[in-house]
């Protein structure tokens, strides 16, 4: 028994040494980066921009793979089921990590079991109306909602999307009775907002900025603690009389459970440096997105905090998805 125990300990030590050596030589081959959205969207463009900047410090090609569908669940499940060797990582966002656990009774992944690598970016959310709308302030919207409860309609990119949950938070903070109209994506929702079929929408800055700059949409307030640099004249929700109102669509980089620590340390450090580099950060800012460099520990803590906060909003709103 004594010999057997020694043998097991020796094998464990060998295995650990082999694992450490493999991690130290990482990456020795191209890395796959899963994006849980279609090609060409904001999340995809951000991922490709960051991946391109990461290739030099890592010394390897990063292949971005789009695995869209099922509210990021398809992509998230692929990452969760990957081998824990650092050769498959991916984007996980506010939906993946904060909303889905409360929206769905069952999930094919556990957000707490990912290896959190670091933050990437956050998309500010803004309350917008058609430029021909009579509403000039948030109070105008609230007065109209009070006068005819349920008559005002608000578009979103779909049930359970950041745009929808920002609306639910707004309704809970202000007691406004507004009808939610879900669409299949932000593009058709914004199209109907432009066409006057719906009264208002929480848009994300990246997809809404071109229409705001073209003078087709009017932004009433930003759901951010400070004013958004891209739209310095737009007041925050707090400035418009709705305190404690912060809503972003955010994202970071995760891997499967149990990624070797040396891999996580290198990837996290290189990701943070890439996001802070002037070339990459400026490209992201130009899209209407804010770089969010966070360490692996900071990103995990942020995701947990957001998960708890939005669980409360979702529960109060009584939203359940299948």
UniProtKB/TrEMBL annotation:
The entry's keywords: Signal
InterPro entries, per database record: BUG, Bug_dom1
Signal peptide annotation: 1-23
Keyword Nucleotidyltransferase: no
Family stated for the protein in its record: Belongs to the UPF0065 (bug) family.
Protein name: ABC transporter substrate-binding protein
Organismal lineage: Bacteria, Pseudomonadati, Pseudomonadota, Betaproteobacteria, Burkholderiales
């Amino acid at each position: 028994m004594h010999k057997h125990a020694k043998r097991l300990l020796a094998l464990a030590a060998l295995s650990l040494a082999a694992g450490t050596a493999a991690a130290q030589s990482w990456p020795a081959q191209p890395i796959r980066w899963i994006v849980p959205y279609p090609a060409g969207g904001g999340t995809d463009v951000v991922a490709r921009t960051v991946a391109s900047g990461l290739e030099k410090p890592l010394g390897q090609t990063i292949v971005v793979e789009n695995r869209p569908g099922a509210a990021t669940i398809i992509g998230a499940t692929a990452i969760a089921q990957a081998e824990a060797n650092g050769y498959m990582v991916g984007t996980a966002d506010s939906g993946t990590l904060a909303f889905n656990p409360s929206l769905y009774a069952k999930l094919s992944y556990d957000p707490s079991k990912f290896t959190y690598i670091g933050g990437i970016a956050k998309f500010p959310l803004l309350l917008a109306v058609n430029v021909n709308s009579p509403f000039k302030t948030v109070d105008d919207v609230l007065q109209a909602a009070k006068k005819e409860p349920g008559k005002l309609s608000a578009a979103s990119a779909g049930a359970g999307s950041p745009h929808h949950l920002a609306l639910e938070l707004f309704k809970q903070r202000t007691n406004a009775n507004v009808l939610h109209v879900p669409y299949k994506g932000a593009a058709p929702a914004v199209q109907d907002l432009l066409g006057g079929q719906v009264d208002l929408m929480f848009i994300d800055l990246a997809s809404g900025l071109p229409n705001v700059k073209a003078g087709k949409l009017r932004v009433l307030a930003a759901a951010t603690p400070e004013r958004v640099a891209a739209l310095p004249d737009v007041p925050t929700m707090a400035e418009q009389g709705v305190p404690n109102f912060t809503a972003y669509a955010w994202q970071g980089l995760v891997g499967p459970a149990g990624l070797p620590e040396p891999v996580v340390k290198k990837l996290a450090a290189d990701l943070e440096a890439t996001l802070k580099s002037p070339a990459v950060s400026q490209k992201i800012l130009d899209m209407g997105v804010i770089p969010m460099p966070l360490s692996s520990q900071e990103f995990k803590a942020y995701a947990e905090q957001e998960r708890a906060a939005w669980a409360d909003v979702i529960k109060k709103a009584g939203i359940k998805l299948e």
